[in-house]
Design goal:
The chain is of the alpha/beta class and 348 residues long. It has two domains: 263 residues, Aldolase class I (TIM Barrel), CATH 3.20.20; 67 residues, Type Iii Antifreeze Protein Isoform Hplc 12 (Alpha-Beta Complex). It contains 14 helices and ten strands. The strands form two sheets. It has an eight-stranded parallel beta sheet with strand order 3-2-1-8-7-6-5-4. The chain has a two-stranded antiparallel ribbon with strand order 9-10. The radius of gyration is 31 Å and the shape is elongated. It starts with 8 loop residues before the first strand and ends in a 21-residue tail after the last helix.
Length: 348
Amino acid sequence: MLVFNKKPFIIADISLAYYEFAKQEEIADIEAAKFLIDEAQSCGVDAVMFQSFKAENVLSRDSSALDELGLSMDYFDSLKNLDKFGVGEFKQLAEHCRSIGMTFLSTPLDFESVDYLDEFLDVYQIASSDINNIPFIKHVASKNKPILLSTGAATLMEIKNAIKAIEDVSTVDIVIMHSIMSFPTSYEDANLLMIKDLIENFPEYEVGYSDHTKPDDDMLILTTAYNYGANVLEKHFTFDKKLNGVDSCYAMDGDDVIRFKRNALFLSKISGRKNKQPLICESYARKEYRKSIVAKNDIKKGDTITEADITFKRPGIGIAPIYADDVVGRIADNDIPKDALIKFEMLK
């Protein structure tokens, strides 16, 4: 069953872009977020995505652990700068989305966020970073709402374990999101064929794609993902790709969305029916270019027709070559001139 009743379903992730846009325009963060929601809606995006968390709930302040990764405590401070929104702000944004016909989504990164989002969130996303966080996954699933399951850096077994954790406590619909946990993702690392692998390994689930590559000029990355079977497409979104933001270098803008939607419409137009069968537009050509059984030489009335007496030529409005065995051995009921299309009424 589809989580979103639309193909493709486009999600604009503006979870970090609003922060940089607010600084550039010198406006409140909440106003920047609403502006970006409106901008996404105006170019045909279906949903917006945020991240909900508090830095102290997400990142350990164990300095030795940070040192092992080559990070400092400044990393905590930078994360803290991005957790300004809480239940009040996200509720405002959800209501704003509802008022303009947009779907509000969020990726909770801690238990507290999962709980307060439940009041106004219809679909949860589980981040790639939590794919092996089974207690957290079960807590999200306990809310009994559809889940987008991001799979960056995950093995098939880890994905299976996450799905089992969801289904241990709930019967909600799941979208398995192909994703690469590299920011930005190089084109060579996009590995869009993994979408097909997910479809083959999890045929009972819908599959989507969360993209972190730089937008190409023709939006072929998202277009190819959609063509490979990813119906839910998520990508970071910004008003200005020149912003010096954390994710601006791999975010799409409104023009990119419009370009992709044009591609998707064209793909839909040329994809057509799945089952192979003749089309109405082929009717005339089917008769004009196919071949019929034709007299290779003059055949006299009373002659027994042999293989040497027939050949196959256009148009295809006579007896089809497949019935040659039904013609050979029959007796001509009248004279049949050379090059004439043979018909069954000419035969005994």
